[in-house]
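Structure ticket #2291
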Amino acid sequence: MACLRFAVLGCGSIGKRHIRNLQALAAGQIVAFDPRPDCRREVTTQFGIPVVDTLGKVWDRYPDVALITAPTSLHVSLALQAAQHGCHLFIEKPLSDRLDDVDALLRLVSARGLVTLVGCNLRFHPGLKTVKQLLADNAAGRVISARAEFGYYLPNWHPWEDYRQTYSARRDLGGGVILDAIHEIDYLQWMLGEVEAVVCFSGKLSSLDIDTEDTAALVLRFASGALGEVHLDYVQRSYTRQCHIVGEDGTIRWDYVGGEVRWYSAATHQWRVFANPFGWETEQMYRDEMRHFLQCLAGKEGAAVDVFTAARVLKVALAAKTSAETGQVIHLTS
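Resolution: structure written out below.
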């Protein structure tokens, strides 16, 4: 793997995190790109890698792999350029903020046989992996419903910068809590199957100085018949992320902050608790995600979330936004 050349396109906090993990995993040579001089200086100082100010200078180095870590609105255009240069792709979530050119990207990836992974890091959280395994083992029986929640006060996400200038706060950069917290849609679809209909209410309900929605309530109907409720917000002062799955034979609850999964079995009338591994920390899921991507590049694993899967998740998120704008139930087709 050490012979691979990686290009990291975007040097914000997530770009720097992936650079750090690529170096920790001795993945290969790395070049980074960012139009902002301050970001370039930070990366050069922290990681000692070359950082360039134009994409042309990136392609002159003939990278094998591109990591797309720029604002959401730029994901697909950057990914298309990278794919046209023969790069395998790691794209931060969400895949995009619109469907424009997504099909073109899917066709190009397919035609060139490129490896792709979209950065849904919660797929690598030990708690959600436990939930997924419990469902695979039929521990709750047939799933009837699920509730997922995420909430955290946007100014606290990156306290070192003005939240009003972050992509989350800006519609033109693809922000808003529905796309920002697309993890919840992704993992529910991972666990319960495809969504066939969506209804949503959302809006900027708080006093945050942003032009995107800060609160959203979604109801999903899955092809299996199960119902899902998703609450997302930029408002809660205490970080919240959890899910609650109700089956005919049991209940499963996951609490990110509490670091545990609880399973109630109707057969035993008892709760069983699964805690995160001792010493586990948040950075571990990002390292595991990058390690998985390297294994995909080596042909040893199949991508957990490739661009085709991410496109289906994006359609659900965009359907929720359309429902909120029109007041209609949006029916999805494959």
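Closing remark: The chain has a mean pLDDT of 96.
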